[in-house]
Each structure stands twice: as C-alpha cells, then as structure tokens.
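Researcher: I've got a protein sequence and the SMILES for flavin-adenine dinucleotide. Could you write out the 3D structure of the bound complex as structure tokens? I'd like something to compare against our soaking experiments later this week.
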Amino acid sequence: MSNTVVIGAGPAGLTAAYELSKLGVKSTVLEADQLVGGISRTVDYKGYRFDIGGHRFFSKVPLINQLWDEMLDEDFMLRPRLSRIHYRGHFFDYPLSAKNALQGFGAIESLLVGLSYLKAKCIPNGEESNFEQWVSNRFGVRLYNIFFKTYTEKVWGIPCTEISADWAAQRIKNLSLTEALRSALIGSGGKTKDGQIITTLIDEFKYPRYGPGQMWESCERILADKGNETIRGLRAERIRHKNGRVECVYARSDSGELVEFGGEHFLSTMPLRELVNCLDPKPPGEVIRAANELRYRDYLTVVLVVNRESIFPDNWIYIHTPEVKMGRIQNYKNWSPHMVPDSSRSSLGLEYFLWEKDDEWEWPDERLIELGIKESAKLELVEPSEVEDGTVVRMKKAYPVYDQTYQDHLAVIQRYLATIENLQTIGRNGQHRYNNQDHSMLTGVYAARNIVGESYDIWGVNVEKEYHEEGELETKTGGDRLVPSRMVPSEEDESNDELIRAAFAKLDPVAMGSAVGLVGGIGLFLATSALMIAGGPNVGANLKLLGNYLPGFDASWIGAIIGGVEIGILGFVMGSVGAGLRNWSMSAYTSFVKRRAEEKLSRDILDKV
Ligand SMILES: Cc1cc2nc3c(=O)[nH]c(=O)nc-3n(C[C@H](O)[C@H](O)[C@H](O)COP(=O)(O)OP(=O)(O)OC[C@H]3O[C@@H](n4cnc5c(N)ncnc54)[C@H](O)[C@@H]3O)c2cc1C
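Model: Sure. Here is the predicted complex with flavin-adenine dinucleotide in place.
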C-alpha cells in the first residue's frame, strides 16, 4: 500500500509527490486526464505544441526556481518577451508608454485623449468606488476605454462598473513602503530590494524547450524512476472517510472501472467544489451549499496552423479591439522555436474567456475554428487562405472566481476540511486561489513536509501578510495576478493609508508648541537663576542683551520670570507653526509618493489580469 495518495497530476500534485519522494515517502498520483501538467500542460496536435494560454516560469521563491532547475536542467531556456496591445488596427507597446500610444492614435485621437486626460485631472469623478471610475480618474475616460475596459471585461465577463476599485488600487499594496520612498527619492534604478532587476520579469522569462508540459512530464518520469506511480485516466469520484480520517479514494478509469486506493495520507488538487461533493459520508448541508456557490471562469483555445514562417514578433498580443471576442493571441513559435514541427509554419492560440453556460462553449470545434479564422482576418493578422489546420482545447475551471461571497464560503469549507486530519487540499483550484505555478507548487511542498511531521500553513501561501515588522506591505486576497471582485466596501485602502500615516506620524501642534515653549521658558529662567545665585560684579552681562528682544527681561528674579514667560509664549507659537508646516509638507510628500507609485504600477496591469 502506498503511503500517500495524491489527486491530480498538475504542478501542485506532482510537486508534492516529488517532495515526498525526497523525504523518503512513497506516493501514487491519480490523474483524471490522459496528460499531466493540469492547466500547465502542453498539448500536442500533429507535432504542434501549445499551452493553455502561455506559461511563463518566474518566481520570487528561490526554492521553486531550484525545483524547476532540478526537474528540467538544460532544457529550461531563458526567452525574450514581447507582447503588445492590438487596438483597432494599431499595435501599442506593452507596458504602456505615452509616446508610443500617442503615435498610434494619430493627431485627432491624441488630442481627444489628451483633453480627456486633462479633464480627469482637473475635474475628476468625485466617486472612485468602481474600476471604471478609478482608472478614468487617472488616465481619462478615453484611455480607459481603449486600454482597460474591453480586455478586462473579456477576461472576467463582468462590466467594469461592477468591479471594485480595490482591484486596481490593490497594485500599490504590492510595493513595500521603503521601496516606494526610495523610488520617489532616488529612483529604484530598476531593482527590487533583493537586487533583482525589475525589467527581468517584464523582458525575459524562463520556459521549457517543449512547453510547460515538458517540465511536468519530466517530473512524472523522475517520480517513476524513484518507484512512485502516476496513473493517468483515473478520476477520483468518491472519498470515503470515518472518524476524521480519509480511509480511501475510489477513482473511475476511462473504461468505467472503479478502483480503490487506500493510504495513510491524502492530498487533493481537485476543485474544492468537486472535492466536497465527493466526500462520503456527505458533509453537513451548509458545507455542500458553500462549495456549490464557488464559481469558476472557463477558457478555450482555438489553435490555428498557419502556412507562414513568421506572423508577428510577439509571444502574445492582448486584443483590446472590441469588435472581436478573442481576448489574447499566442504565437507559440515565439515562446520556443521547438513548439512547431516545421519551421516554415506557425501556430497561433486564440484565447477565449467564457462561462460554461455561454453558447460558444458548446459550439462544435469546426464552428469555433471558423470564428477564429474570421476574427484573425478581421484583425489583419492572418489571411484565411493561409490557415491549413486547426483544433480546439477547452479548459473548464481555468480561473477560480473571487466574487463578493467566495471568502465566506471558503471559510465554511476550510473549517470542515480541518476536521479530516489526513487530508490536505493544495494548488490553485484545490484552494480556490488565483495562483501561478510557483505558489501552487509551494502548497505541494508544504503539504509533503507536513506529512513527515512539520507544520506549515498551506492556506497561508500567496496570502497577504498585512503589515509586518520589516515594514513590508503585501496583498491580502492573494495572487501575483489580480482577480477582480464585485464592489464591496473595503478596509484595505484605509489600512494602507494607516500605514503611511504611521510612517509619517503627524506632530500635534499644541503638544509641540507646549514642549518648545516649556523648554525655552524654563531654560531661560534656570539660566538666569544660576547666574543670580553665582552673583559677581556684573551679573549675566551677555544674558542681559536678551532684554533688547524681551521687554521687561533683565538679570533679576522678576526679570527671569518675565523672560521665562515671554520665551515660553514665543516657543509655543514657533513650535506649533513648525509642527503645522512639517505636517503639511509630509502630507504633500506622501500623496506624491503614493500617486507616483500608482502610476508606475498601472503600466503593467494587464500582466496581472
Ligand atoms: C490562461 C492561463 C495562463 C496561465 N499562465 C501562467 C503563467 O504564465 N505562469 C504560471 O506560473 N502560471 C500560469 N497559470 C496558472 C497555472 O496554470 C496554475 O497555477 C497551475 O497549473 C495550477 O496547478 P495545480 O496543480 O494547482 O492545478 P491544475 O493545473 O488545475 O491541475 C490539477 C490536476 O488535477 C486533475 N484533477 C482534477 N480533478 C480530478 C479528479 N477528480 N481526479 C483526478 N484528477 C483530477 C486535473 O485533471 C489536473 O490535471 C495560468 C493559468 C491560466 C488559466
């Protein structure tokens, strides 16, 4: 009997098995599909290889970078990145640059964009509760419509007026306060605080020679070499538990056979909604209801094989043109030349973001390919006659949706699952979290280590750590990528402002005035008194000069009191005015820092959608 049963051979499940194997624990991985890699798979169609979307490999977690290098070695390449925005016949640089945008618009549209920007700056919308208002206030309505509205709505299927402004504002929270200050003062010089070049993430990324699936096929092979099984084509459909422990998993094979897998520990990467509904006996009604309320955005790729050596230089293009449904287009040959079997051909992946209930989801492949050809021609990227072949891949539950209620539902499910001691849920849909591969993998590593007695907080991966001692600020809802939520009143901005307020704590003018006045007044009184007590032929000759400025002051006991009071009053006025001026300049400076940081980060928002 294998010690651990892992459900799902995506990055999280395979990494967990890999870490377990290093720790000397055997595992069996059950995979419903005929491919490993989950959403990070590579599909092979007649030698043309393509991703679900495009999978860049980058991580700020050193352990994950080390694991990728171990799993793939020299087939892990560093690739250049180019991705532009297509809008009504024009290509715009990405990240956005004002100069290039204005060139693309032409004179009249540039003027209108400029006027709309000026209007936003002079007469901003007083309310900033939704995404549309937030972006329009910073860029003007016209730029918002071109660069933000269409793409965001295509990806999320929610009108921007219903997306909370927090979603956009959240980006500023990824900046550490010290970094924001440093960049405002001396410029960041393109480096993060740990010295990495920021542009690295934007301009280059790592990628397996034959696509992301190669990483996971390699991991599966390494596992097999060490005596761990990965079984494809087995869908877990019943998880039997008793007295707070899972006893076994029943999985159905493609041929319909039900196979039982017992074990001591169980890890699941299947979507939480499915997991809860597989439990036997069933959890209480409120847990099932919570699970059934979790929502997912689905996704499909239309792949076109095109008889042209080079179509465009980008790895991918964001399609903002509102006249087509396509949201993004991938050119796999530019990710890696090894993704096509014939260098005189190219293969494009046209990405459509859908709900399963949308009509297009049910369309036959031929109709979707036809749509893809028509839209590519409309964008003037491809001539229909150049398309030689095509295929469609549907990926259900590609994006866990963060709506207004998901956190409450998640809390109910989490509380219940915590009662089953030998079951851990990991990965993207396993935790209903908008993780990239790295964070999905990290949950796998932690779960494996927990099995051998450590106690990592798996639910704490990719979650905001609030403001902690080192002065860092991180996001709360989690995810390097941002997921919009429908509008809810937020305490996030307040806590951010709190932080800035704490860092630049205001001086109380009355307290400051009183302190300066008291110190000055008492100081003068004591100095005069000391000279009086010391005595001599000409007491306090120098001090007497103060009498020119302080009426009634001289080197006598009465003079000391009058002078002390006068200095006290003068000190109070100077102290409170000084505190007021300091508060005003700090507040102007923090607004400047915040605004500059926001503007800098707005440039790469699309990467995070
Ligand atoms: C369009 C798109 C682009 C992306 N781009 C990037 C990127 O550039 N870089 C990056 O790092 N990440 C990217 N990601 C995220 C990345 O794909 C995921 O983080 C990662 O695949 C999650 O791994 P996982 O193992 O948690 O889940 P999954 O990849 O979903 O794997 C889960 C596996 O479990 C299997 N399974 C489910 N139910 C059962 C069951 N009942 N029985 C048995 N098996 C089951 C599934 O078939 C699947 O193989 C992207 C995601 C999308 C949708």
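Model: The chain is about 45% helix and 20% strand. The pocket of flavin-adenine dinucleotide is lined by residues 7-13, 30-33, 38-40, 52-56, 235-236, 269-270, 274, 299, 398-399, 427-430, 435-438, 440 (CB under 6 Å).
Researcher: Great, I'll pass this along to the crystallography team.
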